[in-house]
Write a structure and sequence with these properties.
This protein has helices at 9-27, 30-37, 41-48, 51-74, 80-96, 105-112, 118-145, 154-174, 178-192. It is an all-alpha fold. It is elongated and about 60 Å long.
Length: 216
């Protein structure tokens, strides 16, 4: 009979997340992971398999706690335009207060996977598909309800938004000034919500919606 595990799996996965998030996949060694997780090398392999498997488990947990949590919360009765504004507002809030400039583990993984192994590319592709699907649902509802422009195809708009997400995250690694990050997304919102058609008295610069305690 297999011995029960003598550690909290979620807790040690959270430690692995911190290591991979800070250093990236390539620069994080198995010895470093085992030491920080308080596990012998054999225990780490028995519990999680090889480094790639542990990375996938850590990334999935981070994914659930950040992107998927945010999407699930915003799709519970939030109007489509508010969901998009709040999504990016929370991203900017996190980036602007990230003193260590770690960025988003998912986005970092997506960028790092360009020259990486096929498994990590598949994870990155899955994240981008999931992000695009969320934005497509928002755009589809927003075009039906009215706030989102119908002058552009919904698929094109939905594909544009993950690109902006990646761009803001990359920019924030170099310059996390809130005004700069908000300026980067403001023209996109002007196109998406067709704000050029607002009456002159209503065209005051709109603050990006945000504020969330969630990681990522």
């Amino acid at each position: 009979m297999a011995r029960p595990r003598e550690f909290d799996e979620d807790a040690v996965l959270d430690i692995a997340i911190k290591q991979f998030w800070l250093n990236g996949y390539e620069a994080t060694s198995v010895r470093e992971l085992a030491s920080n997780m308080g596990l012998a090398g054999a225990s780490l392999y028995n519990a999680f398999g090889d480094k790639r498997s542990l990375y996938r488990r850590a990334l999935e947990r981070y994914w659930d706690q950040t992107f998927r949590e945010r999407v699930g919360r915003l799709e519970e009765g939030t109007p489509a335009d508010s969901a998009i504004r709040t999504f990016f507002g929370e991203i900017i809030d996190r980036a602007a207060t990230d003193k260590r400039k770690r960025g988003c583990m998912l986005v970092n993984s997506t960028l790092e996977s360009v020259s990486g192994d096929p498994e990590r590319r598949r994870i990155a592709d899955a994240f981008l598909r999931e992000a695009e699907s969320f934005f497509l649902r928002c755009v589809t509802a927003g075009q039906k309800e009215g706030p989102i422009t119908k002058s552009q195809a919904r698929g094109d708009l939905a594909r544009m938004l993950p690109v902006q997400l990646l761009g803001i995250r990359v920019l924030a690694r170099r310059n996390s000034d809130r005004d700069i990050l908000e300026a980067a997304i403001r023209p996109v919102f002007a196109l998406l919500f067709d704000e050029s058609r607002r009456k002159p008295g209503r065209r005051a610069r709109r603050r990006i919606v945000g504020a969330s305690s969630n990681a990522g």
